[in-house]
């Protein structure tokens, strides 16, 4: 590449438009320090420990405040979870606070939905209007005529409680767009969802969990350390050559949708050759005889035909895995589900982990530990009387009922069955991007009498809303404390670092204003201080509240701890009280008691499977508009393997039309060897509708417009890899 | 980084194999040092080789090498580019006339021009942090701890430990600049 000598480090020509004047002044201030002979040793700042909210990891942060302006966020080394790091996104959070395009005051829609015409209003008017609309819907359709959807966060509880106190059973949270299938599969096997002790593991297998680009703490840091110091071996399966693939000892570009065949092939070897942990299987599990019989037909030769991975490699990995056990994990992954059999694929992983006896052992899977914490006792309300609109009891009898089944909910709302839903409250979530088949989400918005969004930035969903209630940024508010269970449990606290820059409010205050007008304020009759002080009460450190204000995180001694559950009389929280290799409960609910392999649907000639993935510097669709992150990937592209690209005359940079049954988008091609010839991939979070996200608006393409609606049969989790697309040069 | 008086030589040892190209170092630097969007004091280069399915991808973090014998300092007509006794090469912005000779002289492409201020800028090892006993922002924030910062002259320091037990290289040694970023192999 030709670069000019004069300014060789200028890769992207973007003008510095983002920073608010105050922030810019503070940044320029640091240049003063470099005058000859002068050291920058004056104490200029205040350091406030808090907890990051740019993704769900909750890393501990030390915010450096200079004259009332946040100068820098540093990692807090006291956290055993974030292990003294702060990622690109965490560092870029400063930019969000001073983003001139963020939501600055309550807004009421002034034009048609999505037209982008807004009327700035007072909080009183926004609350009055929202309450009036919700009350109208309630009197016409009952409280169940509203759906309250949110993604996880420390203040989500207030939003959810408001929905419930209002009388709606239709609370729908993130898990069925996220990890519901993993949670359900491990719960069905072990009665709980364990963590993986990657820092001590000697052998790790990962199916598509791209841990070196999709950061999960402490797993990412623990694994990169072990793998790069050659302490641990990593076997990685992914149709894409990701950063994780590049660091793995072995990368298998597996035929998509066949991970279960790989696992069953391994089980065939390990069970068939008797190289499993016989003591653990005999002492703690049930159904091994059925498993033995079940996996007989899943030979490595059979698995080779399904997965494209040579039988001798499957045998090698099985032997190495069994030999390394208990310091060996088939990592559960933590990402959205892929196929309609996702639950059963995760079950197969759980069973494989169980038979090699890595349960509750150093370097294996460990049940989560916790630290005691108090609870604020608020006035309880009567449970909503109506049944859920997603009919989760009937459709997904084993699923976590309180979280709902998002895609089924959307289908039922669109059909108006079993009853009409006409109001949609959204907190901190962007269903327009988070759900597949955006055309349906738009239809769902269209058929609503009222949509309100609580967020700190103008998401695509906010763009189509009737009312926007702007939440203060995480650096501007104090939140409830959170106990983070795990191998290294910790309690973290998010406290206000700076006063809100604009006319925004913390979610609790937004909810309280609304609750007052909905005549349910008795249930929210407390302050955030009351809440956190009640939580601090039972934390086993002296003056816990002061301690958390000073440190931001509480850790107690005695962790990690292994083997608590490895006692003869320990009862697992399953029906049999044992680890369930074969599950009667699944059978009774009409599911396969052992994972039965079903081959994935094949793409037809000319079709490609669309797969999803992450970059380390973007969280979901959330920060493609952050100038400090956007410059790394200024636009998304469609990854196409050179083989089909050549066949179709496609070159990098060509504009393509990508079509599925769900929709069509236009996007430029990126011809790369880093993907299988039968798959295509595009980065999430681009092609936005919201003009208040200048950098991501109409830039690249939105994957949600192309992805089709499909879900895992058992958990109801969205299945994101079931879409076939055709591509055409335009 | 304590006891003043004693001579120090700051340097950085990098274990690039651990780099995930997550860009935490780049954004941390941007925030700490007010680097404009589109400009970089540090960066991560990618190298990709092979064809599907035999592929290789490696990452190579780069920034100012804080050279022992910096050519940027030699060519500066005003003395704005200068070197501290501890080796850190700095730019005195009030003396910089924006002639950019230093940018041409740097063998590592480590300097950039700030149009908004009319001066040249580059990595300073976060001297404002180091002088207060803190680590440079890129070193501290890195999730996989690619970088180790310290005093090369400390016989018991981590740097000596790494450099005497691991193989390493420096970039473009033939320039005679004496770069002080040591890349472990």
The top-level CATH class of the largest domain in chain A is Alpha Beta
Oligomer: heterodimer
Q: Report the C-alpha radius of gyration of chain B, rounded.
A: 17 Å
At CATH level 2, the architecture of the largest domain in chain A is 3-Layer(aba) Sandwich
How many structural domains of chain B?
1
Low-confidence stretches of chain A: 1-42
- Strand order of the main beta sheet of chain B, please? 8-1-10-9
Would you identify the regions of chain B where 5 or more consecutive residues have pLDDT less than 50? Answer: none
Coarse morphology of chain A: globular
Helicity range of chain B? 10-25%
Return the average pLDDT of chain A rounded to an integer: 93
Structural class of chain B: alpha+beta
Number of helices of chain A: 24
DSSP strand count of chain A: 27
Give short descriptive properties of this protein.
heterodimer, A: 730 residues, alpha/beta, Rossmann fold, Dimethylsulfoxide Reductase, domain 2, Barwin-like endoglucanases, seven-stranded mixed sheet, 27 strands, globular, disordered N terminus, B: 185 residues, alpha+beta, Alpha-Beta Plaits, two-stranded antiparallel sheet, 26% strand
Describe the structure.
The complex is a heterodimer of chains A (730) and B (185). Chain A is built from 24 helices and 27 strands. Chain A is an alpha/beta fold. Chain A folds into three domains: 228 residues, Rossmann fold, CATH 3.40.50; 197 residues, Dimethylsulfoxide Reductase, domain 2; 123 residues, Barwin-like endoglucanases, CATH 2.40.40. Chain A is globular, with a radius of gyration of 26 Å. Chain A starts with 20 loop residues before the first helix and ends with a strand. With 185 residues, chain B is α+β, with helices and mostly antiparallel strands. Chain B has a single domain, classed as 2-Layer Sandwich (Alpha-Beta Plaits), CATH 3.30.70.20. Chain B has a four-stranded mixed β-sheet. In chain B, strands 2-3 form a two-stranded antiparallel ribbon. At the A-B interface, helix 1, strand 3, helix 2, helix 6 and helix 7 of A face helix 1, strand 2, strand 3 and helix 5 of B.
């Amino acid at each position: 590449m030709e670069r000019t000598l004069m300014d060789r480090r200028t890769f992207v020509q973007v003008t510095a438009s983002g920073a608010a004047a105050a922030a810019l002044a503070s940044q320029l201030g640091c240049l003063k320090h470099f005058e000859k002979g002068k050291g920058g040793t004056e104490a200029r700042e205040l350091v406030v420990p808090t907890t990051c909210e740019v993704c769900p990891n909750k890393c501990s942060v030390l915010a450096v405040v200079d004259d009332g302006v946040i100068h820098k966020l540093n990692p807090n080394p006291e956290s055993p979870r974030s292990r003294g790091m702060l990622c690109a996104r965490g560092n870029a959070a400063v930019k969000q606070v001073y983003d001139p395009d963020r939501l600055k005051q309550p807004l009421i829609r002034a034009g048609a939905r999505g037209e982008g015409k807004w009327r700035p209003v007072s909080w009183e008017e926004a609350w009055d209007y929202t309450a009036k609309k919700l009350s109208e819907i309630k009197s016409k359709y009952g409280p169940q005529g509203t759906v309250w959807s949110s993604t996880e966060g420390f203040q989500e509880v207030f939003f959810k409680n408001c929905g419930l106190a209002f009388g709606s059973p239709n609370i729908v949270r993130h898990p069925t767009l996220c990890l519901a299938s993993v949670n359900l599969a491990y719960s069905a096997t072990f009665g709980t969802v364990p963590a993986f002790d990657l820092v001590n593991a000697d052998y790790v297998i990962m199916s598509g969990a791209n841990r070196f680009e999709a950061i999960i703490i402490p797993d990412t840091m623990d694994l990169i350390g072990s793998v790069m110091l050659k302490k641990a071996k990593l076997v990685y399966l992914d149709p894409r050559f990701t950063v994780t693939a590049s660091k793995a000892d072995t990368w298998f570009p597996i035929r998509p949708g066949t991970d279960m065949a790989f696992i069953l092939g391994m089980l065939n070897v390990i069970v068939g050759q008797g190289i499993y942990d016989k003591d653990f299987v005999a002492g703690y599990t049930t159904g091994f005889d059925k498993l033995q019989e079940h996996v007989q037909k899943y030979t490595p030769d059979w698995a080779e035909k399904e997965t494209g991975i040579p039988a001798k490699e499957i045998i090698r990995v099985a032997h190495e895995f069994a030999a390394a056990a208990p310091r060996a994990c088939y990592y559960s992954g933590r990402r959205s589900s892929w196929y309609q059999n996702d639950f059963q694929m995760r079950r197969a992983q759980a069973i494989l982990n169980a038979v090699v006896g890595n349960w509750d052992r150093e370097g294996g899977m460990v049940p989560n530990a916790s630290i005691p914490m108090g609870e604020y006792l608020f006035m309880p309300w009567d449970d909503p009387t109506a049944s859920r609109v997603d009919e989760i009891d009937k459709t997904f009898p084993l699923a976590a009922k309180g979280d709902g089944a998002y895609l089924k909910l959307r289908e039922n709302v669109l059909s108006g069955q079993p009853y009409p839903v006409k109001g949609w409250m959204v907190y901190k979530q962007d269903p327009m991007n988070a759900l597949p088949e955006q055309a349906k989400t738009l239809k769902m918005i269209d058929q609503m009498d009222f949509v309100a969004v609580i967020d700190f930035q103008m998401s695509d969903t906010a763009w189509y809303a009737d009312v926007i209630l702007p939440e203060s940024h995480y650096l501007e508010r104090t939140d409830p404390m959170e106990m983070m269970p795990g191998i290294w449990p910790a309690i973290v606290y998010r406290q206000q670092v700076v006063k809100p820059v604009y006319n925004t409010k913390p979610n609790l205050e937004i909810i309280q204003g609304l609750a007052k007008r909905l005549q349910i304020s008795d249930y929210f009759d407390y302050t955030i201080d009351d809440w956190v002080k009640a939580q601090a009460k039972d934390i086993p450190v002296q003056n816990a509240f002061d301690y958390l204000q000073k440190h931001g995180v509480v850790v107690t001694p005695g962790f990690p701890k292994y083997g608590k559950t490895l006692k003869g009389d320990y009862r697992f929280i399953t029906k049999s009280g044992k680890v369930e290799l074969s599950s009667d409960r699944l059978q009774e609910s009409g599911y396969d008691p052992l994972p039965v392999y079903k081959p994935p649907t094949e793409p037809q000639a000319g079709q490609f499977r669309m797969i999803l993935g992450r970059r380390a510097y973007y969280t979901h669709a959330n920060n493609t508009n952050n100038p400090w992150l956007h410059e790394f990937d200024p636009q998304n592209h469609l990854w196409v393997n050179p083989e089909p690209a050549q066949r179709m005359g496609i070159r990098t940079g060509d504009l393509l039309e990508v079509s599925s049954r769900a929709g069509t988008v236009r996007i430029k091609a990126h011809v790369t060897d880093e993907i299988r010839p039968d798959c295509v991939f595009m980065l999430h979070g681009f092609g936005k509708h919201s003009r208040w996200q200048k950098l991501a608006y109409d830039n690249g393409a939105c994957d949600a417009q192309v992805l089709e609606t499909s879900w895992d049969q058992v958990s109801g989790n969205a299945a994101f890899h079931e879409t076939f697309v055709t591509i055409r040069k335009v | 980084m304590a006891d003043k008086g004693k001579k120090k030589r700051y340097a950085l040892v990098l274990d690039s194999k651990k780099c995930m190209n997550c860009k935490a170092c780049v954004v941390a630097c941007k925030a700490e040092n007010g680097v404009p969007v589109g400009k970089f004091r540090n960066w991560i280069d990618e190298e990709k080789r092979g064809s599907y399915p035999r592929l290789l991808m490696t990452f190579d973090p780069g920034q100012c090498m804080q050279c022992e014998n910096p050519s940027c300092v030699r060519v500066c007509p005003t003395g704005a580019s200068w070197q501290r006794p501890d080796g850190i090469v700095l730019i005195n912005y009030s003396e910089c006339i924006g002639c950019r000779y230093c940018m041409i002289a740097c063998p590592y492409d480590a300097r950039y021009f700030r149009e908004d201020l009319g001066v040249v800028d580059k990595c300073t090892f976060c001297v404002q942090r180091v002088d207060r006993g803190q680590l440079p922002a890129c070193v501290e924030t890195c999730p996989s701890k690619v970088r180790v910062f310290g005093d090369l002259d400390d016989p018991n320091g981590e740097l000596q430990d790494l450099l005497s037990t691991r193989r390493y290289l420096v970039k473009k040694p033939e320039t005679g600049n004496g770069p002080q970023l040591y890349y472990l192999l």
